[in-house]
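The step that takes the researchers longest sounds almost clerical: writing a folded protein down as plain text. Below is the pair of lines this work produces for a single protein:

——
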Amino acid sequence: MYQVDTIKDGTDLYYVIRDMEDLSILLSPTKYLKFKAKAHMSPNTIRHAAHALVHYLHYLQEQHLSVDDVYSLPFDRQYLHFTGFLQWLQNAYHKGESRKMKPNNRTCNGYLREVFRWFDFLERLGDVPGVLKVRSEVRRHFDTEKHIYQKTTRSFKGFLREQESVGQRIEKEDIRTLLGACANLRDKVLLLLLAETGLRIGELLGVRFSEDIDHEKQRIRVKFRSDNDNDARAKNEEERSMLISDETYRIMMCYISEYHLLMMHSGYLFVGISGETAGKPLTIAAVHAMFKRLERKTGIKAAPHLFRHYFAYERYRSGWDIVLISRALGHRRISTTEHYLDIAGEELEKSAKEYFNNVKGLIGVPDVL
C-alpha cells in the first residue's frame, strides 16, 4: 500500500509518497513532486498529482508490473495497459472497498495525464529506458497577445470521452439565495468577492487585509506568496488587482471592523471566526465545507470555480472584449477563456446577421454575375 504524506522544511511543505509496509519514501515519484513544488505550483495541484501517482502505483502493483516493465511492453500491450488504468479508475477500484461514488471521465483522464507528466519527467532525467510507444508527437499552434508560436506536444488516443462542461456557472439569483443563507458576514463577503473579482479561491484566501486592499481605488490586489499559512497560492506566480463595487466595499469594511481583532493574529482578510481556528487563515477545505452547509440549506450546489464562470459571462454580456476578460481572470491563453463562456448557437447566428446587416459583402453580385 502507498500513501501520500507531507514533510515540512521550514516554511516549505513537500508532498511525498510512502510505502506503508516499511514507511520508506518512494524516491522517483517524490522527486517529481518536489520538482513541482520548486516550480511554485500550488499545493492543491501537487496534492492532486500525488494522489494520481498513488492510484497508478497501486494499479501497477495489481498488474505485477514496474515502471521499466511498462516501457518494455510492445505498442498494443502498452496501449491496453493505460486504457486498462482508465477502466480501473472508472470502476473506482482505486477507492478500495468504498466504491459508491465513481469518478467521471474527466477525473479519470486527469489522473492519467498526471501519470504521463511523471513519465515525461523521468524521460528527461534519463531514469527510464526510452520513451512511451503509445504517445505520438503533435505540433500545435498557440497564440498569445504578443506572438504566435508552435509547440510539440505528445498525445494519447485512448483517453475517455469527456462530457462537455463549457459555460458551467452559477446564476445571479442563486448567488443572492446563497448570500441570504450565509450564517455570518465573513461568508457573505467571500461570496461577493468571488462573484465581483473572478479570483481563484486560492488567490482570494491569500489576500492580506492590511497590505492587499487599495482603499483609495477600492481594489483587491493578488500577490504571489509561497509561504501562506493556509497553503493559498496565486497561480502562475502572477500579480494583478481587481475593482469591487461601492456596496461590496462597504460590506467588506463592516466585516473588517467586526473581526479586526481576529484578523490581527494572522494578517489575512479571511480567517476563522470561532472555535480552535479563530484568527487563523481560512483554508480551502473550510470554504468547501461552507459551500456544503449552504447546499444543505438552499439545495443549490455551488463551488468557488463556478463564480469565475459567472464573472466571465457577466462581463461578456455587458460588452467586455474577451481579451480583457482573459486578463481579468489571469488566463495565459484566450482559448481557456473561451471555454468559460456559454455562447449559444442562436446568439452567434444573431451576431452574424447583425454583422452582415451593417457590413457589405466583399464583392457585389453584379461584379460576379
About this structure: DSSP finds 15 helices and eight strands in the chain.
